[in-house]
Amino acid sequence: MPLLHSILHATNFSRPFLSTLVPSIGxxxxxxxxxxxxxxxxxxxxxxxxxxxxxxxxxxxxxxYLPSIRARAAAAAAGSPKPAWPxxxxxxxxxxxxxxxxxxxxxxxxxxxxTRLGSYLFARxxxxxxxxxxxxxxxxxxxxxxxxxxxxxxxVSTCLLPVIALNALPASTFAALPGIISLTDILGLLLYFxxxxxxxxxxxxxxxxxxxxxxxxxxxxxxxxxxxSKSRHPNYAGESTLWTGIATLAGGVLVSSAGQAGMGLAGGxxxxxxxxxxxxxxxxxxxxxxxxxxxxxxxxxKYDKRYGDRKxxxxxxxxxxxxxxxx
Length: 327
Description:
By secondary structure, the chain is mostly helical.
């Protein structure tokens, strides 16, 4: 496959870490560009959100397996036997299969979140005849529509940065880590599972409330029960928390001496700050979007216009935290 060999050669940097990091980020923009062309021609946003989830899945998979793809391609070019594909089960059981359990677990964590989000959003837009009000002033303008797709590529790349960086580390990095599991591993896993549980539970409560409203089992105009009595946006709080968990686990490795060596850095203050920044960029970006751009501001504005003059809405808004749940 000449094209594959050309791509592998063009992205074969002197630092192996970059040889995985750069192509994985580049894939996000390639996938979004590929979906953007027919979407712009058809002036349809039907596959916009779904393509975002597929980009998460494809970039995660590439970052996990690209080192093996390179090793197999090099062996084939040299006429040597190709090394076996790394074993996921071996990584989870602590075997020396080329992958570390952290890489497999975080890749699976992102895949679970992306699959759930993509299927939910695609079902929602399909029920709305393939239209989304966010694109009313965008779909008919090719430049604006293209910017939307590349903005999504930036979103995916930034959120995935700690996972891609972790997957880009060589096996020797994890072998050099002290112990099988660390405090940041435990804390990261707890935050992830706590965050995704909160997000799933909040979404299910809202979907059940909407279904009951359609069945005329209640006449409530806005949800104030369950988790929605603890936070006005518990689903967003859950999403921010789960990405914080992913960053915590990955960051613990990236700032370690072994992680710094795997990144090709000397391990000084600057290198550790860079490692921490690569991990922290994900939850910081997600939280900023939710708090300042597309999440909470749009939702709050919509509900304020509809119910801002109602006393029960004002009381709920006054007594219920906007973001962090109050249990």
